[in-house]
Amino acid sequence: MQRALALAARVLGALTRAALAASALGVLASLALIAWAVTLRYGFNRPPAWVDDVVAFALVGIVMLGAADVLRRGEHIGVDLLTSRLGPRARRWAEAWAALAVLAVSLVLMGNGWSTAMFSRQLGILAEGNVEVPVYWLQLLLPLGGALMGLVALETLARLAAGAPPVATPHDPESPE
Amino acid sequence: MSVALIFAVLVLVLFTGLPIFAGLLLVGGALLIGTQGGLGSISEIIYGELNRYLLVAIPLFAFMAHLMIRSRIVDDLYGTAYTLTRHLPGGVGIATIAACTLFAAISGSSVATALTIGSVAIPQMIRYGFEPKVAYGLVAAGGTLGILIPPSGPMVLYGVVSDTSIGALFMAGIVPGLLMAGIFTAWIMASTAFGRRPVRRAPRASMREALAALRKSVWALSLPALVLGGMYAGVFTATEAAAAGAVLALVVGVAVYRTLGRREIWDSALDASRTSAMLFMILAGASVFGFVLTKMRIPHQIVELVASMNMGPMSFLVAMMALLFVLGMFLETISIILITTPVILPAMAHLGINPIWYGILLTINMELALITPPVGMNLFTIKAVTKAPLGLIIRGSAPYVLLMILCLALVMAFPQIALWLPGTMLSQR
Question: What are residue B2's phi and psi, to 5 degrees?
Answer without folding.
Answer: -75, 160
